[in-house]
Amino acid sequence: MDLATIATVLFTYIIVLGIIAVTVIAVTAAFVILPVIAARRAFARFRRRYVPQFRPGQISEGFRFYYGTMHRRSLERTLRRVLPKWPVSAKLVAAAGELADLRAGLNAAAGAGVTRGILLPIEEETEIATAAIWRIADRVSAAAAHNVSYQLLAPGLEPEIEQLTNLVLAVRQAREGLAQLTLAHEESRELVVAERHFRALGEATTAVLRLAPHAT
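Request: output the structure for the sequence above.
Response:
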């Protein structure tokens, strides 16, 4: 076989391989890549239409859409994503997480037979506190949208940091009191301690509400 024949055979072989490669790529695009692209576009349309968009100053609107179904980790992850990297944001994340756990605890306590009359005031304080922190989150995100230095705004946010810190502690103690209440007997010491924690939650909620007067 001379060199010309060998070259022709090799050229033909390369052409065949090229055709096969193009065919494989076309089939992959048709059955794998294009459906993936189509699915991503469909999801983007769904997200724009049905999933809340956490715009600066309107975070509360987004969370009202599905807050009740969010677990603590997903809630905290979402807040960290939409809030600025400021100290007050960390307090908002912590408060929201504690309140989410308190909501879950209230449902568990109700399922365990704790009377509605005892749980209702705690539920109301929880809802008020939650609305207040969403309102504060709105204000913080709106301020961050101006792209100014945090040092400029820090003095004005000191009350929020202080009261949110107190709220986190109060909610945590209320959760502990709720756990004790779930196991308590009437007139027990645990019941007295739990009621004291619940009063402290009410006081902390009132203080935070003063910072977000339109939350309710």
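The chain has a mean pLDDT of 80.
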